[in-house]
Write a structure and sequence with these properties.
Elements: H1 2-19, H2 32-50, H3 55-72, H4 83-118
Length: about 120
């Protein structure tokens, strides 16, 4: 429940930060690529934890969300839709989804090993 709420707060934050004028957007000083990668990775990771969807479904949702964010910026005079932003956003999302799925598999393997040893 908490992961789902955090996921939707993160999605809303990304949408808002993607449409506000550039001068009103907070900057961390870490660089645009790092900021994009981190924001999308965090949100995708929490979304993958909160919603136990298939890997393919999560990747498709990430693909369309990342593309939609860039398309949302097309008509805005102070924002620019860039393929490079889409790519880094999607790569960050895929990375986090992969970490969540990989971690879940490792935990399942560990549990199975412990259960079979205790019998």
């Amino acid at each position: 429940m908490v992961a789902r709420a955090l996921a939707w707060v993160g999605i809303l934050a990304i949408i808002v930060l993607s449409v506000v004028p550039v001068v009103d957007r907070p900057v961390t000083g870490a660089g645009q690529l790092f900021e994009h990668f981190t924001a999308f990775a965090l949100v995708a990771g929490v979304f993958a934890i909160g919603y136990r969807l298939s890997l393919i479904r999560l990747l498709l949702l990430a693909f369309f969300f990342c593309g939609g964010i860039e398309l949302l910026q097309v008509p805005l005079p102070t924002r620019h839709a860039r393929v490079s932003d889409f790519v880094i956003d999607f790569v960050g999302s895929c990375f986090a989804i992969g970490v969540v799925f990989g971690s879940a598999k490792l935990i399942d393997i560990h549990r199975r090993d412990n259960c079979s040893r205790s019998k």
